[in-house]
Amino acid sequence: MGYCMILRAKYVMPDSHTVIENGAVAVQGSKIVDIGLYPTVRSSGISPTHDLGEAVLTPGLVNAHTHLDLTNSADSIQRVPKFTDWIFQIIGKRTPSTVGPSVREGVQQSLAGGVTTVGDIDGTGGSAQILRDIPIRKVVFFEVLGFSGEHAAMGLTRLRAYVDSPPAPDSLLTSALSPHAPYSTSAEIYRQCVASGVSVCTHIAETKDELEFLSSGTGAFLDYLEAFGISTAEWVSPQLTPTEYMETLGVLRTGSLLVHCNYLTDADVTTLAESGASVVFCPRSHHYFYHTNHPVVQLIESGINVAIGTDSLASNWSLSLLDELKFLARTQPCIRPETLFDMVTCNGTKALGLEQIGRLEKGWQADIIAVQIPNDSRPAIEQIFDRSSENLLTVVGGQVCYTSNHWG
Question: Could you name the CATH architecture of 3-59+359-403?
Fold first, then answer.
């Protein structure tokens, strides 16, 4: 149930291109009922008023890709240079007894970091039920994998059971599917996910090993599959890039999310731009695995919808999208501040297929954060990226879900 309140701050930033000085947002129930100059909004008669002082009220941030069920596994994962060695550490970390505490802790860390919406990968089938009663907006992607033989058959069985009886949607929860990755998931599972008609999220072009596996059928992922007794005897390498392979399976379409896309050819970028699919870039996870030169600028210039994700704490230092935004601003100084902010707001909502969030607008959902800023001469949007900025308040659907110690 939402609140009735007015939030006032030095600045209100309804979107990346608009700033209202001495602004306010009026909230009634789950929605924004007024926005503008504080004296005007105050005349609405809504109360109480919370004055955030030297802060910027902005749309809540959208973490388009994360794995909340791995939150409490972070301390047991070692940073290693070889991706498949990292995967070996992940396997078995998610159990029925660990998923609930991990997901709940992940939500709390996300809300503290300014996140109001997550695209969460459900690796066990239990996350959706855990998240149902937690006040954060979420698209929960049921993860399916199984490369060949009995593993693929089991994956298809799980997929069909999920499609036949998906979690019931509500105002904060949408269900979707995530065929894991080309090196772990059969072509038939991909096709069945696409045929389901729901949004599909998959990890592609994450490593050079993946490129080698799909182009020649050799390398670290062949060894990875064999180590688990997964047969590759009947599998024939498609001799394609990951993007080309996804195109043959029907994955490249509006409503699909392609996570990472660290290694793309120019032709891949053109194909993605023509497909209508969204790309989710995970900047600090990219750095964690020692990748360099992500093609994010080329993707943006090609007109592709690029959103931002944190990935999990198994490959990141926090679940704060505000931290992610600051890192991206430092490492990609050629990207305009307005574009960066779009990537964590309206681009994320577009990628996840959500409406009436991603900007502050009368009649839209009251997903709002308040970022305390240094209060210097720079434009408000640039001050949000300052190392010292801090999230003070997180509101989801009109409900106050997080407040810092500095919020009155």
Answer: Roll (2.30)
**Residue 29, SS3?**
strand
Q: How far apart (Å, rounded) are the C-alpha atoms in residues 131 and 129? A: 5
Question: What is the rounded CA–CA span in Å between residue 108 and residue 381?
Answer: 25
CATH code, 61-352: 3.20.20.140
How far apart CA 10 and CA 373 sit, in angstroms, is: 10
pTM for this entry: 0.97
How sure is the predictor about 61, in pLDDT bands with cuts at 50, 70 and 90? very high
Structure tokens at 282: 């995970």
Helix (H, G, I), strand (E, B) or coil at 55: strand
Both structure tokens of 271: 């194909």
* DSSP output for 259-315: EE--S--HHHHHHHHHHT-EEEE-HHHHHHTT----THHHHHHTT--EEE----TTS
Mean pLDDT of 143-152: 95
Residue-range domain boundaries for the chain: 3-59+359-403, 61-352
Give 120 or 165, the one with higher predicted confidence. 120
What is the pLDDT averaged over residues 109-121?
98
> pLDDT band for position 233 (50/70/90)?
confident
